[in-house]
Amino acid sequence: MCLIITIAIMLAGYNFYEHNLYTQAYMSFGFAIIPFGFFIYRLIINRKCIFGNSKDCNKK
Question: Membrane-spanning regions, if any (predicted)?
Fold first, then answer.
């Protein structure tokens, strides 16, 4: 759900940018880049659990 909201905010930022509303566009991109960056970070860190054959993904 958070990813869908983040993508919606990024699309809103793009639309602001297309209509020359740069301040609103930068604010939207700024709000969206933090959770999107966290999503990409977790995707890289947990790639063995998501895409690989790791059996115990809760082990630390």
Answer: 25-45
Q: CB neighbours of 57 closer than 8 A, spacing ≥ 6? A: 46, 48, 49
> Kindly report the CA angle at 38 between 35 and 42, in degrees rounded to 5?
140
pLDDT at 25: 93
Cα atoms found within 13 Å of the Cα of residue 34, Cβ hemisphere only: 5
pLDDT score, position 40: 87
Per DSSP, 36 falls in state H
CA distance 31 to 40: 15
Place of tokens 């609103």: 24
Q: Which residue has the tokens 């999107």?
A: 36
